[in-house]
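Reopening this ticket.

The earlier resolution said the output was attached, but the attachment link was broken on my side. Pasting everything inline this time so it's all in one place.
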Amino acid sequence: MKPVRWPRLASRDGWRRAILIGTGTVVLLTVAAAVAAVRTRLHVRTAAIAALRNYATVAAEQFVNAYEAALRQNFVPIIPSPGFRDPVGGTDPIPVIDMVAMIEQMRRDPCGCLVSPGPTALFRIGPDGRSTDVRDSLGQPLAGLAAGVVATVVSLGDSLAAGGIRYGFAAVTTPLGDEVAFVTRRRDSAAGANFTYGFLVPRAHLAERIFDPAFRTVRLVPRHLLRTVAANDEFIALEVTGPDGRRLYATGERYRDGPTDALTLPRIRGAFTVRARLNPSIKDALIPGGIPGPVPWREMVMSGLALLMTVTVAAFGLRAAELARLRADFATSVTHELRTPLTQIRLAAETVALGRSRSPEATIRSMEQVVAETTRLQQLIDNVLSFSRAERRSHALEVAPTRLRQVVESAAERFAPLVADRRIDIRVEVPESLEVLADTSALAQIVLNLIDNAARYGPDGQTILIGAAARESRVELWVDDQGPGIAPRDRRRVWDPYVRLDRARDVAPTGTGLGLAVVRELAEAQGGSSRLEGSAAGGLRVVISLQPSDAG
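Inline output:
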């Protein structure tokens, strides 16, 4: 029966791919949902703001309709209609005194329904623009109109005649101040010419007698708000300005922050601009559900938290998968590392025990092999125990002044038999005078690990150089090999436990991935540090920085 081979590596890679694909899918869906929520919120907000502006526009239009109705009732009757004939002259242009009589008749209105415009001047301008008749409200003659006023009035009359419109009005400036000219254009059959009739009203009269009553009497509040808002000024603020930007009328300075819209009237209607501002405190009552904020912060925060949790879980999953892979590789490597020296020890021991040695020298060589392989086992066990203590932070080191060369030479002598068959030369160039603050056993293990790392990844016949020097306030110990070295981008990773680079696997299939991790932990436990550099021989240099003996 064939043995079953479990596809462990493929399974682990599949889980990793599944985690990455799942995380990417969740991230994309979360981002898509967040974008959709933002777009929907902005669309709803835009529609709601447009609806509020429509409320303001409708209110402005209702106000304009109300005050123009008042103008038609109280101001327009003063100017002669196209079919009006002078009861006295009949064939002459209608005299201005007839308009004065109309004002007097309005004053005597028995029901008190009409409002006198209180004109400052009534006028008739001939076809040449110069023959004018100007009188006050009592019929007394006045000086002629200013040239600018005449030009404005005649131009407005031309527009009325061209459009077949009975009347119009325009803002003008006279020596008396800001006024409004109400104008009509009438062709007198007897004279066969067009005459422009009208009167001037102060803007203040227009605001007081037309605009304000219109605002107070017409209902601008939507019907469904009548239970909430009782008066127009609780719902909206209005402002009327002339074409020159001067204010003609305003209900107040309130609601500057509310939704606003403006309605600009045509030139024959004064080119007035009516600006409406809604009360911001009732905008939610106008829009069912209220106006959403510009950005759905609550949904964004929830989406962000969900995304963060997803990424965190995925990171933990990937980290767990990576740790599982590293531990599995470590177990495999340790098993191989243990099996190799144990096999050598067993063969050597059996050779001696069964009397298969051909000579005493062969017996000695077998026992030396047992000692060498035992040293290898001891180093492996020491590495595992040191790393375990480092993870538990349970190092118990006795740091004391230590002669560096003695420790280095001892470690090199212990390791030399392990690489003798590979013709590797270990050369020590450490000054006799250097002393460091270190734990002798921990320092020896550091040196053994560095020699083992150099020998494992270097070629046969290489020279491993161990050097040291005092530099500034530290003592640096380094080990150079002639191997392929490590790219700068990978030099941080190799200090992590269980990590073995793919290139390192090709050079040396065995190894636990703990050697440099133990070196770093032991160096830091003694107040030192570690780093990687390129060596002069083209390989790798591992540098350990230690405290000098006089540092304590």
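Reporter confirms the inline version is readable. Confidence is low (pLDDT under 50) at residues 1-11. The radius of gyration is 52 Å.
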